[in-house]
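Hi everyone,

Forwarding the result from last night's run.
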Amino acid sequence: MHVSAPRQRVVMAALLLNANRVISVDRIAEYVWDDAPPPSAAATVRTYVMRLRQSLGEHASARILTRAPGYLLELGEQESDLGQFTAHRRRAAELAERGDLEGSSAELAEALALWREEPLVDIPSRTLRDVEGRYLQELRLQTTELRFDAELALLRHAEIVPELVRLVRKHPLREALVGKLMLALSRSGRQSEALDLYRRTRVLLVEQLGAEPGAELRAVHRSILAAHDRPRTPDPLKQPATAPGAAVATAPPAAWERSCWPSPAQLPSVPLPLAARSGALARLRHFLATGAMPAGMVATAVVTGRGGVGKSALALHAAHAVRGSSVHGQLYADLGGAGRPLTARAVLPRFLADLGVPRDGIPEEESEQESLYRSLTAGRRLLVVLDNASSSAQVRPLIPGSGGSRLLVTSRRRLADLEGARTLLLDPLDDAGSLELLGNIVGPARIGAEPRAARSVLTVCAGLPLAIRIAGTRLLERPHWSIGHFARRLTEAPRLLDELFAGDLGVRPSLDADRAGLRRTAAAEVGRAVDPAEVFTALGAAGVSSVSSSRVAVMLGCPEAQAEEALDALVEANLLAAPAEGRYRLDPLLQAYAVEQAQAAAVEQHGHPYRRAG
């Protein structure tokens, strides 16, 4: 059925291109209004979806499901051209791996026959065409190149020359196509034309990009010069009868030589697992090993919680546990958190190189890197671990292509806008788990000798594994200290966080990172609301361990709704515990950090500290 309203067509296209995956309302709004949505965008998008459902009729409209934070369109693989295209590509890969290049080439030809004209040409969204249209074009070109590889391996070089000539004229700087045309020309007895093509391409690359041809194209050039690759088209009357797959053994197309692809194994080592985390670990392992997702989606898990709570350790334990199911390898990147975030532009080139792309073959444009990354990972079974993400925007370009891959993310934020992700919130350890961790470090005998002092230390550490590891390390380094002595140091220290440092580990830097990720509301930016950082400092000046939104409103002289909004922002940044019975709480570590912030603010204000609220 044709959808006539332009913006409804944009919505429909966005849903179709993300079939069986949740696409957020915000992402749809970016497409509809070309990255400049109005304040009412979310409500208007919902209206467009409602009208779209009405236009499609009862049966078709039931396929559009509301799924937080947006919508999902249910679609079978054979119900769209893109679904059929993907199915043909998958069957082509399977046939090539079994040695049936004839069948593989036929499947790729079937896939390419589904293309009729430029994708999304009638969709009035520049952003959608830039993001999805370029991806589709890259997918089409890569599929064409795979078919050429199969045809070259089947010694059909003369037959593909005309089509290659047409494509190279359209994409003169695409070295993969140029190389295949050079091979086809050379093998057809047209070596001089192949060498002339290389010369012209080199001039074009130097003039337009300031770069020499890449290693693969130079290798093709050398092979032609050395006359190492000049098989003539065989005389059909003299050609020996061979099975269709016979050519495969001697000349498999490089694009399908998966045995030559690297299998990265980048997971860092981890400490011993804790019994207290066994339940969370089992849930995470089960999802990564068996999580079933609709076609086109990648099983994604997000482990979230405050800094130092053990997110990375839990995620890596789960990752190591499911390594056997990620048969094509594991990729790992530390995204740096809010303090020093790495963009996808910094990570993608490394991932591409780790997956076997030559350094000089990695595209310059980030969008082209994303397309290549998705293509390389599509249909494979990789585990991608992204540690310490600060936003969904960091993660989205690094989601592998659809297929059997898994994505595991750790973040201090919940990343609720990461479509289709399963979230696991990691809380601080309970008393038993805290005692287990400290005992693993200093030994159960030392804990058994001073159980009450050990519990005093753990009370200050507030169940935070980072703080417990630091405390245990300090005790381990100082065997002449009793646990009671260390407990007194912690409880009597003028600045508690000064005591919780060991080597390059510290609780304060972790809390600094939480504070760096603290979001100011848009209203606070223009002075119409309370800055959450100001509220946190005020809590330190007041010396409170728990507080209500009404009390904060009195302390700062603001409406209670604004105080509650600021407190919730602190909860989101892990600088307050979520409210229970109407009260927000600070554990001993957060309370000590809030006091430090208040003291620093008082110094900056030249002796004008926040007034204490009794």
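The first helix runs from residue 6 to 17.

Cheers,
N.
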